[in-house]
What does this fold into?
Amino acid sequence: MQDIFTKSMARNIYYGGSLFFILLFLVLTFDTHRTLPERDNRENLTEQVAQGKRLWEENNCVGCHTLLGEGAYFAPELGNVYKRYGGKEGIKAFIQSRPAEGIPGRRSMPQFNFNDEELEAIAEFLKYASEIDTQNWPPNIQG
Ligand code: HEC
It folds into this structure.
């Protein structure tokens, strides 16, 4: 090993390191794009799910909730709520029964006055979201 750290050694480390990590980045990007179609649950993407997504956006659910880790931290994560509630009925009943009054200090969710069709669409959307293979993201069950 030389005692002197020369300019050319520094340059080689710089270029070699950059090249290595650029290649690693490309390989990981390629791998992500290759595996995503198997994980995004697109075979269950129905018109009803799309309607639920529109309602989700129009009513700004994400202004309070996270979905698969993205969103606001005021209210619980909803990407896994279908599994936590064991189905659509519990979700619909919860949304219909808001706001829960008289519990001091508890954050409450407003009433949206959805009709049956809209409630079903939202529940379908949350079911769809719960079936996306996120490789266990978010790691915390409450988001
Ligand atoms: C103003 C904030 C706010 C908005 C907007 C909001 N929520 Fe909520 N939501 C809450 C809060 C707070 C809770 C927890 C309430 C509780 O436990 O009493 C909650 C709970 C829930 C739950 C039960 C979650 C659980 O883990 O128990 C569901 C399902 C839900 N919301 C769906 C929705 C949907 C769908 C929308 C959009 C149509 C929406 N929320 C919009 C505040 C909000």
